[in-house]
Design goal:
This protein is an alpha+beta fold. It has 4 helices and 17 strands. A hairpin with a 5-residue loop joins strand 12 (178-186) and strand 13. It is flat.
Length: 242
C-alpha cells in the first residue's frame, strides 16, 4: 500500500460560539438561526443548585447528519458536570433542517447559559463567584472559546493509533498528487471526535484523510492535572509513488 507524506501543520483553534440565550421567543429566534426544526430547552439540574450554583454555562460542538439528527455532541467547557449532562441530553433531542449541503453539515459550536429561572445567556469564562454581578451588566456574548492544540500542551499526549491515509486506488492510473486538511478534537478519553474537512484537492483525498483520522486514538490530553479536550489540524500530502 502506498502511504502519503504527512505535512503536520498544527495550530491553535479558536471556536466562535453562538449563545443560546433567553427563554421563550428569543430562544425560538436563535433556534431558527441555527437551522433547528426542533429545539428542546435544557433543564437546570438540581445537583448544580444543591452545590450552590445559580448560574452557569456549557459550550458544545454538535455534528448532525443529512436527516438533521445529532450524531456527535462534544462538551468543550462546562461550569458544572450536571449542566454538561443536561445540555447534552437536550441537544440530543434537537433536530436540524435536513440538508445534503456540506456547509449545512459543518460542526455547530454554541454556548448554552443556565439560570435558575431558565436558560439564559451567561458570559463565557466568568465564574459565578468571581463575578456575581456579571448578569446585570452588558457583556459581549460572542467571545471565542479557545481549545488548546495537542502540540501546545506541556504534556503532549502520545498517539496510540495513527494509521496514515491510503492513496485512493481509483486515482492510481492518473498518478494524481494533492493534499487534504482535516481538523478534529481529541476528547478526555483520547478519542478523535468531530473530524472535519478544511480543504482537499480532490474528493477522494478528502475521503481517505477523514477515514484515517476517524480511527486515530491518543492518550487522554491533560492540563493542570486534569483531562481536557484538545484540538489538532493535520494536512496530508498524497503522491502515487510514496
Amino acid at each position: 500500500m502506498k502511504t502519503p507524506t504527512m505535512l503536520a501543520q498544527l495550530c491553535a483553534f479558536a471556536v466562535l460560539v453562538a449563545p443560546l440565550a433567553l427563554s421563550g421567543a428569543n430562544n425560538a429566534g436563535l433556534a431558527a438561526q441555527l437551522g433547528l426544526t426542533r429545539f428542546v430547552e435544557p433543564v437546570f439540574p438540581d445537583a448544580a443548585r444543591l452545590d450552590g450554583f445559580s448560574t452557569g454555562h456549557v459550550t458544545v460542538a454538535v455534528k448532525h447528519n443529512a436527516q438533521g439528527e445529532p450524531v456527535d455532541i462534544l462538551v468543550l467547557a462546562a461550569t458544572h458536570p450536571k449542566m454538561a449532562e443536561a445540555a447534552t441530553q437536550a441537544v440530543r433531542d434537537w433536530r436540524f433542517t435536513p440538508s445534503n449541503n456540506p456547509d449545512d453539515l459543518a460542526t455547530h459550536t454554541m454556548r448554552i447559559g443556565f439560570k435558575m429561572q431558565g436558560v439564559v445567556v451567561f458570559p463565557f469564562g466568568k465564574n459565578h463567584v468571581e463575578d456575581p454581578e456579571a448578569e446585570a451588566r452588558f457583556i459581549k456574548l460572542s467571545e471565542p472559546v479557545k481549545v488548546p492544540r495537542v502540540q501546545a500542551l506541556a504534556r503532549k499526549p502520545k498517539a496510540l493509533v495513527q494509521t496514515m491515509p491510503k492513496y485512493p486506488a481509483v486515482l492510481a492510473p492518473r498518478q494524481v498528487e494533492g493534499t487534504a486538511a482535516v481538523r478534529f478534537y481529541v476528547d478526555e478519553d483520547g478519542r478523535v471526535r468531530l473530524p472535519e474537512l478544511i480543504e482537499a484537492t480532490t474528493p477522494e483525498f478528502a475521503e481517505a484523510a477523514l477515514a484515517a483520522v476517524a480511527q486515530w486514538r491518543y492518550e487522554p490530553p491533560q492540563a493542570g492535572g486534569r483531562r481536557i479536550v484538545a484540538t489538532d489540524l493535520w494536512t496530508f500530502k498524497f503522491a502515487a509513488n510514496n
